[in-house]
Design a protein that fits this description.
This protein is mainly alpha-helical. The chain has 4 helices and no strands.
């Protein structure tokens, strides 16, 4: 088996593992947004589209019965939703 064949065979697993850990990198943004008035430099439209996009990935994962996609994107959508909620709170 050639190196390229092994890479192609293992890449879905590698990408799935990266996808699972990637949302955790959003935690510093949540920590920054949590105090009142600290979301002024964040775009409401970007947060809305990110949260909606991640929620759609969760729905896709459920339809495909792919629980890696569901788990990773649920974490991401939750963290993004928290920051979105902080942004809406700070607008009011």
């Amino acid at each position: 088996m050639s190196f390229c064949s092994r890479c192609q065979k293992n890449s879905p697993h590698t990408l799935g593992a990266l996808e699972h850990f990637w949302p955790r990198f959003y935690l510093p943004q949540v920590k920054k947004a949590w105090p009142r008035g600290s979301t002024g430099d964040l775009s409401l439209g970007m947060l809305l589209s990110l949260t909606l996009g991640l929620a759609l990935w969760v729905a896709y994962g459920v339809l495909q019965s792919d629980w890696v996609i569901v788990a990773a994107n649920t974490v991401g959508a939750t963290l993004s939703g928290i920051v979105l909620g902080c942004k809406v709170r700070d607008i009011s």
